Amino acid sequence: MQIGDRVRLMKGTEEGIVVKMLDKSLVEVEIEDGFAIPVLESELVVVSSDESTAFDTPNYESQKPSKQKTVYEKPNQLKGFHLAIIPLNDHLNSIYFLNPSSEDVLLMANEVNGKNEEKTILSEKIFAEKFTKITERNMDHLNTWAPLSFTILTENSKWSIPMRPEKIIVKIKSKHFQKEKGEIPFLNKKGYLIALNQSHKETVEPEKIDIDKLRDSFFTSKEETKDYRNTKKGTAKTPEIDLHIETIDPYYENLPKEDILRIQLSKFEEKLNEAFVAGLDEIIFIHGVGNGVLRDNIHKQLSQHHNIQFFKDTHKEKFGYGATLVKIK
Predict the structure, then answer these.
(1) What pLDDT does 67 receive?
(2) Where do the Smr domain residues begin and end (predicted)?
């Protein structure tokens, strides 16, 4: 018995699809009304498409025109790995991982909290052109859904240079539900698709960075960029990075505090690393005063960084203790 098999309960009339192997003898079956139940393999029988012929019974389905696809039909229209969100009712949703490729993959799915800590919720092998159910989420709490982290490793079916594992983090937001529900390959159900941007190159080329363009990106106007380029090193205008959540994520309303902090710290790390690459002498981070949590986290990370000469509160007359100047070695 495999994931994707259509099965029937031996002690009942219910039919469904095997969506997860729970252990050696227990599987999870999603029955027709969308609910998943654990069932012992010994209590299931795989439904054959030609069982009516085997038992010499009339095949009434063949007399009815049907456009329904079988579970095993290859979804040629999909390229790359995808998430599928299937509404079970007005509140509950099932989240699936789809593997339309011709290779088996090893998948680890984690939940990510506000401290960038991860907890594994799924770890299994997904066969080529198959799927697996990851979790269920309540639509009423969409804004508090934790981001999902996927580590995907493609198995080598023959001797070749192995592809490096890819790590993809997805934050499911309300924008993913703004389009109409469509037919989901493999599952033959209506739902929403989210593409996972996955590289299938066997060798990963280093990213080419335009240093001048990267430096210019720190300034918001052409005048500031021109002043920077025409000023000698050490006297150029110091770029200021605003870390207030409303300037980073326009959909921040109703986000839990830990998610807001994670987004702000991620932006801080991104811009600090870019400053190193661009060869900047210094940079200012505007984090605000608030309860001091963001400031304390930023100062803690800066104190542990070897490329930092010093850092201090700055522009107190303008920001109070809401901005930090970072001097780079």
Answers:
(1) 35
(2) 269-329
pLDDT digits (tens, 9 = 90+) for 236-253: 678 889 999 888 877 777
Question: What mean pLDDT do residues 112-122 have?
Answer: 85
Round to whole Å and give the CA distance between 100 and 127: 9
User: Is there a domain that residue 30 lies in?
Assistant: yes
What does the DSSP assignment read for 265-305?
HHHHHHHHHHHHHHT-SEEEEE---TTSHHHHHHHHHHHT-
> How many helices (H) and strands (E) in the chain?
7, 18
What CATH number does residue 268 fall under?
3.30.1370.110
CATH number for position 156: 2.60.40.1600
Q: Which residues partner with 282 through β-bridges?
A: 327
pLDDT tens profile 149-178: 999 998 887 887 777 788 888 888 888 888
pTM attached to this predicted model: 0.48
Domain limits for position 189: 82-195
d(CA 281, CA 304): 18
Q: How distant, in Å, are the alpha carbons of 18, 72, 147, 228, 233 from that of 106?
A: 19, 20, 20, 48, 49
